[in-house]
Amino acid sequence: MCNLVFKRIPQLVFSVSYTTRAPRPGERPGMDYYFVSRGEFERKIEDNQWAEWARVHDNYYGTSAEFLDSALARQATVLLDIDVQGAAQIRKRYPGCVTIFIMPPSMEALQARLEARQTDGVAIIQKRLANAAKEIAQKDLYHHIIVNDDLQTAVDEMVSLILRYSR
Q1: What does residue 98 show for φ and ψ, rounded to 5 degrees?
Q2: Is there a smaller number of Cβ atoms within 10 Å at the N or the C end of the chain?
Q3: Confidence (pLDDT) at 56
Q4: CATH for 2-165, options being 3.20.20.70, 1.20.1740.10, 3.40.50.300, 3.30.70.1400
Q5: Given the DSSP bridges, would you call strands 13-15 and 18-19 parallel, antiparallel or unpaired?
Q6: Domain assignments of the chain as residue spans, ordered by start
Q7: 1-20: b or e for each residue (b if 16 or more CB lie within 10 Å)?
Q8: Residue 44 pLDDT
Q9: HEC string of 24-54?
């Protein structure tokens, strides 16, 4: 979704997350994620260098506070692709933010999508599904909810929301 949104709103700034997990096939460092060691990530936690961070699926993920603060100082519209733990931290640190929850049409559809990616084994997929159910239970904490049933419709909704708030 994010890639399609950026094609429609090229001035949008994407916040590339940091992670301690290994790259998946085809992922490019600095484009998809910044891949860092667990030690480096934990040092940045201690130094309060994350705008948000979470431990998900036994790995850390986070957003650079320096990057986000710099982009916001330039009055850029920034898109973050983060989980509910991170969104809660962002809402607290940046109370003027707008949050959008992207939801699968069903748990069965999510499972089929995860299996079709062929990047995770059965145990990891089951863990992701359990975590997704917990995250979906928090969807009402967001300003907007988009059900990603039809990709183009979901992208249209997201573009419309971003343009509404960035004017």
Answers
A1: -115, 125
A2: C
A3: 81
A4: 3.40.50.300
A5: unpaired
A6: 2-165
A7: beeebeeeeeebbebbbbbb
A8: 97
A9: CCCCCECCCEEECCHHHHHHHHHCCCEEEEE
Angle between helices 122-136 and 107-117 (to 10 degrees): 140
| Look-up of token digits 């991170």 | 86
Give the sign of the dihedral formed by CA 97, CA 149, CA 81, CA 6. Answer: negative
Supply the pLDDT for residue 157. 98
Tracing tokens 């301690």 back to the chain, one arrives at 20
Q: Quote the pLDDT of residue 58.
A: 87
Q: How far apart are CA 80 and CA 2, in angstroms?
A: 9
User: pLDDT under 70 in the chain at which residues?
Assistant: 167
The strand ranges marked E within the chain are 13-15, 18-19, 34-35, 50-56, 59-64, 78-80, 100-103, 144-147
Please list the residues that pair with 103 across neighbouring strands: 147
Neighbours of 72 (CB within 10 A): 16
The whole-angstrom separation of Cα 138 and Cα 11 is: 30
The residue with tokens 């979470």 is: 54
